Amino acid sequence: MPFWIEIIVGLLSFAIAAIGGKALIPFLHKLKFGQPIKVEFGPKWHEGKQGTPTMGGLLFILSSILAVAAGYVLFRMFGTPKPEDTAGLMNGALRLLSCILFCMIFGLIGFIDDFTKVARKHNDGLSPMQKIVFQVAAAAGWLLVMYLLGDTSTEINLSFVSFDIGFFYYPLMVLVILYLTNAVNLTDGVDGLCGTVTMVNMLLFTVICSALNLAETSLFTMAIAGGCLGFLVWNLHPAKCFMGDTGSMYLGAAVTCVGLVTRQHLVLVLIALVYILEALSVMIQVTYFKYTKKKYGEGRRIFKMTPIHHHFEMSGFSEYKIVITFSLFSLIVGLGGVLLAVL
After folding, report:
1. Structural domain harbouring 212
2. pTM for the full model?
3. Which of 22, 36, 54, 205 has the highest Cβ tally under 10 A?
4. Does any domain span residue 321?
């Protein structure tokens, strides 16, 4: 893949998302698609964000799809290695298409959740069980498609060691998909946080995909990185729009499917570590609260508030400082993952 094609894809995705906000945000205002805010899900001062348009994730969803389409045309025109590689190119194109459709399905699940919230004017969208059913079906369907496209390996790759777990690979990967997509969703709680962390991670994945000769997938990762940057024009504090579950579910699916396509499971854990810790903080907090309530009669907390970015916020970190700190952490840990993948 010529590097200039990836650059064009990233810049095009950035431009579409950044310029598109000029039309989408007023439209969302007109429809009164404002985000309901409940203080129990964030610091009290977040009440001031009540009514900020949600579903802004449509910006980078649209931009990434259009940029990938343009990039793929350029790739076939200028980046095709050899005519005899037609079968490999077709397989790569189908894998790319499967990833895009998989992410769009998760984005649709998020859209339904967002639309339900704004229609009811409160913070409850789809029920947890409804989300799980839809997500499991989407995850299982995508894994089946990847199997039919030739991805039949059931090995877990931890870089230093690999081991085959047979059929159990598939239910395990369904759980991984569910955990990570919802973890990315939990990370979207501070202006600019999820978009910035995901932009960093997608740039890291671009390096990995290029090194592993996953040319088509690198188009997708670069498009999402550019789309996230364009979205941040409107989402950095004070946010003029939120990505909503529409955007966070799409990004969660993208991070997960790209990580699984590379077959670098330990690398995925490192690159996605911020998301993993965000979700883990919630699990630890809830478990400890229930345990202490049962033992002492009152629930106790380890963190001031979860997900953990709210703990930092309650400790005096500004939203900008949280975004910078978490993104740098993701970059440093993710670079370790890049080294494991390319060496």
Report:
1. 3-263
2. 0.94
3. 205
4. no
